[in-house]
């Protein structure tokens, strides 16, 4: 049986190809982690690797596109007046259970992705001040401590089997929450 090659639609397919690549990367990052092969991302999206690299020159660029929605969602939640530090952590945990690679990106040492960590740290810092005033968080807890907590969650969740991540996430957060509470 001869392989039927898809017709090249040229530039008119660019937006659809980009969207397919982001969707495929999100799926693969959720099951295989942040280090999922980029060739597998292209295959799952139904495009060639050349198309992947035209849209995303490196893994960091692809990760930024995949997880921009997560960070925007956290920023929108933090902008709501009644949002607490716990609310932010609960949403981060939900996002991480869906795709543990998100926390890998937030805590990455890669300077290209550091901006995401800065954005998340800024969100947590804003709610940290309120938690201190409310007397629910120790005065010596810093925004960097909170990012460290996020990193600890990432380390635990990325290694947990997907089916046990919700329970592991809840348990881990309960333990970590105690370390920052009064």
Count of folded domains = 2
Low-confidence segments, given as residue ranges, are 1-5
Give helix % range: over 70%
Number of helices: 9
Q: What is the terminal-to-terminal distance?
A: 69 Å
Biggest beta sheet summary: none
SSE succession:
HHHHHHHHH
Overall spatial form: elongated
Q: How many whole angstroms does the radius of gyration measure?
A: 19 Å
Could you give a quick summary of the protein structure above?
The chain is built from nine helices and no strands. The chain is mostly helical and about 180 residues long.
Please provide a written account of the structure.
- With 182 residues, the chain is mostly helical.
- The chain folds into two domains: 11-55, Orthogonal Bundle (Arc Repressor Mutant, subunit A); 67-180.
- Helices cover 71% and strands 0% of the residues.
- It is built from nine helices and no strands.
- The chain has helices at residues 14-32, 38-45, 49-55, 59-79, 85-98, 101-106, 114-134, 143-159, 165-180.
- Helix 1 (14-32) packs across helix 4 (59-79), helix 4 packs antiparallel against helix 5 and helix 4 (59-79) packs parallel to helix 7.
- The longest helix has 21 residues, at 59-79.
- It is elongated, with a radius of gyration of 19 Å.
- Mean pLDDT is 85; it is low at 1-5.
Task: List descriptors.
182 residues, mainly alpha, Arc Repressor Mutant, subunit A
Topology, please?
Layout: H1 14-32, H2 38-45, H3 49-55, H4 59-79, H5 85-98, H6 101-106, H7 114-134, H8 143-159, H9 165-180
Helix pairs in contact: 1-2, 1-4, 4-5, 4-7, 5-8, 5-9, 7-8, 8-9
